[in-house]
Design goal:
- InterPro entries: Glyas_Bleomycin-R_OHBP_Dase, Glyoxalase_6, VOC_core.
- This is VOC domain-containing protein.
- It comes from Streptomyces olivaceiscleroticus.
- The protein contains three helices and eleven strands.
- The chain is of the alpha+beta class.
- Strand 9 and strand 10 form a beta hairpin.
């Protein structure tokens, strides 16, 4: 008789040595993760534990990242790094939002709105509803430029701007 090993966390069994997990019903959620790991056990993809992405950083390309990083650092209450990289500057706002600015000598500001009405990436910066006017003044004081007439979508107010390098962004009330 072949020996089986039971994982006490998931209740799954596996034949020794190696072999796929055996289940009566298709799993979902954490059980699905265990099944994916088991199915890929022989490939070496999941030797230890299921891996999750823990954070993401939005990276904006710009010809001169320093002034753009300064603009967003002021707006987000972030500190600029003491040693700024030559090619990439990354900041983290007070509430954990991370954004980076990559030097691209050929960068050109995106157009907004696009004539063919196609979608392009842009930021939505969330602002308390009662602070929208204050934050709008800060945006302009720091070098941002209004792009469109503000509008409402449901309960949210949207105000459109571009940063000093021309990247579009929206102040969105919350």
């Amino acid at each position: 008789m072949k020996r089986r090993r039971t994982d006490t966390r998931t209740g799954t069994t596996r034949r020794r040595p190696g072999g796929p997990l055996r289940r009566a019903a298709p799993p979902d959620g954490p059980e699905r993760e265990t099944q994916v790991m088991a199915e890929n056990a022989d490939t070496g993809l999941f030797d230890e534990a299921f891996v999750y992405v823990e954070a993401a950083v939005v990276v904006l390309d710009c010809a001169e990242p320093e002034p753009v990083a300064e603009f967003y650092a002021k707006l987000m209450g972030a500190e600029l790094p003491s040693e700024m990289g030559v090619e990439l500057i990354e900041i983290t706002g007070r509430h954990g939002t991370r954004i980076a600015f990559r030097r691209d000598h050929g960068a050109a500001p995106p157009s907004w709105p696009r004539p063919d009405d196609s979608q392009q990436a842009h930021l939505h910066l969330l602002v308390p509803r009662d602070r929208m006017d204050d934050v709008e003044r800060q945006v302009i004081d720091y070098g941002g430029r209004p792009m469109e007439t503000p509008r409402k979508e449901g309960m949210e107010e949207l105000r459109f701007f571009s940063d000093p390098a021309g990247h579009p962004f929206v102040l969105r009330s919350m």
